[in-house]
Design brief:
This protein has 242 residues and is α/β, with parallel strands linked by helices. The chain has one domain: 3-Layer(aba) Sandwich (Rossmann fold), CATH 3.40.50.150. The protein has nine helices and eight strands. It has an eight-stranded mixed β-sheet, sandwiched between helices. Helix 2 crosses helix 5 and helix 4 packs parallel to helix 5.
Amino acid sequence: MTDPRHAQPRSAPPENTYLREVKSYVLRAGRMGPGQARAYEQFGPRFLLNYAPGAFDATAAFGRAAPLVMEIGFGMGGATAHIAGLRPQDNFLCCEVHEPGVGALLKLAGEQGLGNIRILRHDAVEVLDHMLGENSLDGVHIFFPDPWHKSRHHKRRLIQAPFVNRLARHLKPGGYLHLATDWEPYAQQMLEVLSAEPLLHNTAAPGGSGYVPKPDYRPLTKFENRGLKLGHGVWDLVFRRH
C-alpha cells in the first residue's frame, strides 16, 4: 500500500467538464497531532483504501456483504464514527482529503473497533465517477458542506443539479440521500435542487417545510449544539430514489 499521507489531490480535469467547476472538497490548512500521525501507522493498513479506478468490490474491501453508505466530507470524523457504531449492520465508505481529519477518524475507528468503516483520502467526485457503478449505494451522507456564503462563490457549492443527478444515479432504488446544513440560504438551495431531480422524492411530510426532523442516527456536533443554543437553525433533508 502506498503511504496515504503522500496522496496527491486530483489533477485538473479536461476543459468543459462539470468536474472542473465543482470539487467535493476544499483543501484546508492543518497539521496532524501525534495521535493522528500514529493512527496512520497503526490503523491505516486496516481502514484506508487506495483510490483505484475500476469496479469497486465492496465485499472484498469490507470483508462482508452489507448495505453500502457513502459519506462525503466527514471533517474530523466524530459523527461518522458515532453513526457507524449505531449501525453495525451497514458499511460506510468515507471520503475526505483533509489529512488531519483522516487521521482523526482512523484513530476513532481503530480505538473503537469499527470494522464497518473504510476511508478513501480522495475526491469523492472521482470516486463516484471511476470506482462506483450506478445503482451501487444504499445511502449517501453529506453533512455541513461548505456553504460558500458570498454570492459570487455560490457556483462552488457542492449541491448543484449535475452533482445531485450523479448521486441519484449511483443510489439503488429506495436508497437515500441525507444532507444537513446550518446555513438557511444553502438549505433552501438544497431543497430546490433535490426537489427538481426526477429520480428522487422527498421523505418529508407533505405540505410541510420540505425538511425532516434530525434523524436519530445523526449526532449533534459541539459546533451545532452551540449554534442551537444561540438560536441558529439546522436543516436536514432526506430524499429517496424512486
